[in-house]
Specification:
Two copies of one chain form a homodimer.
Chain A (H helix, E strand, L loop, with lengths): L5 E5 L3 H12 L3 E5 L3 H10 L1 E6 L3 E4 L2 E3 L2 H4 L5 E4 L6 H9 L7 E4 L6 H11 L6 E4 L4 E7 L2 E7 L3 E6 L4 H8 L6 E3 L3 H5 L4 H4 L1 H5 L2 H5 L13 H20 L7 H8 L9 H7 L15 H4 L2 H15 L4 H14 L3 H4 L13 H10 L8
Helix pairs in contact in A: 4-5, 15-16
């Protein structure tokens, strides 16, 4: 086995910067790719990535590029580290240049991102397993191109592959990159533990006016109050009901924050967790409403959760309320734009067919 | 006709103070009543009411009391000037001491307040017409007991009586007190022009976190942004659809602000009206969520509107969304607590029966 393994990271945002730094530090040759030339040039000018915060240091990046084809040349693993809504176009681009032996990990995969990714690859002639983790491996903020502040390395990375029959083998490979990955039964279980749709939209909406005015305030410390957290908890209960119905572990929001390392203990309520955990303390609110806190977490989170609920007969009234409110606030019909089981071609499956499909990646009732 | 007419005002809040001042200035002998002894004592210590703002002056109040029975002794008119949710208990108290000749005006009556008031009186053995206006006759703020700042006298007071066959006679009487009253076809038309349910809940909810934290900010100037005003406008369109279906005039929010004098012209959008009209400029947000902006305007406004919509087959999806959101934020089931046609005993009436009932005050299908 060669010592220097090559890894491509697609997307040089907060997470892409942090992963590029950490994997390069660990001895991987990192290819970092972003569509934004200014970002790539900024990193190139520094000669690599400077990390501050909990992990101080500098790491050289083997290859910096805006060209996906160049980025994945000779790599063993490809890590798209982009918002959920960018998955489809990246899968389309990758399909034309994959060799077939690369390990793919959506990092994170949001909810059912790996299914849409695999579907897009297949529709473009490629058939490879796609793995997913439930959260970014870091709490981090990009300060400027080439400079990232990392405040936390996630303690547990919930992991699965699509199809899930490949999870064990893929986990063996990816644990060299991320030793904290923890296998789950399938990507649906991972995706239902994507905490963002429970956490982000409600504080965004119940602070919509000041966000729209561009006022700066602390998202968790100032923007989350008792009633905000109570609605988050209701969303979390609906999410856990979906998990229970599918026979998955039910990990509450507060338990997950402890598992991942965002909280030092399991706080009794979401409000306590948001207000006391150090990792949340410095996080500022978005500066406008056209933010992934709504445009990722509603159409690719709450809409997806609610569509699963509809299929399973599990009521999700609070999720539906928040989707409707986000639609009113932004003027975007998220029910139409968002990712539902039907849109993934899975609308005809019942609960057990859906679980079998997640395991095997094929079903007579699925046309792709 | 005696020169000095006696008028009882029940409730010494913002509006009660302003009306007591203005009517006393006009030469009426005002009896002012409030359940809060400290408020009555405060006014008594001053010897009357000091007004500032657009109308400067001092007026003596003929009688200050906490006892409704004493307050209405010898008066020709009784003006409950209280939040909508206090109507029922005041009607119960009044029923035991009314003489039968007093003119009653809910000032304002919110939505269908006059119907609930008349129903409560009848259930307690009294049968008198009850009139209503759509808004307070003033824009005013109480500074402390006895001191009120009046920034505006409303230019048009939409008025009707229940039953509406008495509107003309009651309007003749009340125009001596309020010369700007303008007759509408019935109380339902007045109540559907109660602008508060359209105006207040959305900015309250989309600023819920900072209100819950007790932060001070300008409700209209800072708390209303483009998306807030767009949702207000959707509520207003649903409200106007109700008016149209009932054959009423459709007065838009921006037109009403001009009619009442809150705006110096008819602004094109609610956002412009809220941001440009002087009357809104100084108004601060409530300091907590247990405020009439939610607890009056949702259960006695949006819930009532939506129940009328349901009866008439007029869709009110945005109203329903805002009611559901207010319920989530406060933890109160406003659909259960709020005032619906059914709760008023009017659930069995169709559109034309409802209009006839508002006119005549009786219907074979109504049991009270």
């Amino acid at each position: 086995m060669v010592k220097t393994r090559r890894v491509a990271i697609i997307g040089a945002g907060n997470g892409g910067h942090a992963a590029a730094f950490e994997l390069a530090q660990k001895g991987f040759a990192v290819h970092l790719c972003d569509i934004d030339e200014k970002v790539i040039d900024g990193i190139r000018n520094l000669g690599g990535i400077q990390a501050t915060g909990r992990f101080e240091g500098f790491a050289k990046i083997a290859l910096l590029t805006t060209d996906i084809r160049e980025a994945i040349e000779g790599v063993e693993a490809i890590l798209p580290m982009v918002p959920r809504y960018a998955h489809r176009s990246i899968a389309q681009e990758l399909a034309s240049c994959l060799r077939g032996h690369e390990h793919l990990l959506l990092c994170p995969g949001s909810t059912l991102g790996e299914v849409e990714f695999a579907k897009t690859l297949r529709e473009n002639g490629r058939d490879q397993p796609v793995s997913t983790v439930a959260t970014l491996p870091y709490a981090c903020r990009l300060k400027e191109p080439g400079r990232v502040s990392i405040s936390l390395i996630t303690k547990t990375l919930l992991f699965a592959s699509f199809p899930a029959k490949d999870t064990e083998e893929e986990a063996r490979f990816f644990s060299a990159l991320f030793p904290t990955i923890s296998e789950m039964s399938n990507g649906l279980e991972v995706g239902l533990n994507n905490g963002n749709p429970v956490t982000h939209p409600v504080p965004t909406l119940l602070n919509a006016a000041r966000i729209e005015r561009g006022e700066r305030f602390l998202f968790y410390r100032e923007g989350v109050t008792a009633s905000v957290a109570r609605i988050n908890q209701k969303l979390d209960e609906e999410r856990m009901a979906l998990c229970r119905t599918l026979g998955f572990r039910t990990i509450s929001l507060t338990e997950r924050l402890f598992l991942t390392g965002y909280a030092d203990r399991i706080y009794e309520t979401p409000l306590e967790a948001y207000h006391r955990s150090e990792a949340f303390a410095p996080i500022l609110a978005p500066t406008n409403l056209h933010d992934r806190y709504l445009f990722e977490d509603v159409p690719y989170g709450l809409v997806t959760f609610a569509s699963i609920g509809e299929r399973l007969g599990v009521p999700t009234p609070t999720m539906r309320l928040i989707v409707n409110l986000a639609a009113e606030v932004t003027g975007v019909d998220f029910w139409k734009e968002g990712m539902t089981l039907s849109r993934l071609g899975l609308g005809g499956l019942d609960r057990f067919d859906l679980l079998r499909f997640m395991e095997e990646g094929r079903s007579p009732a699925v046309t792709w």
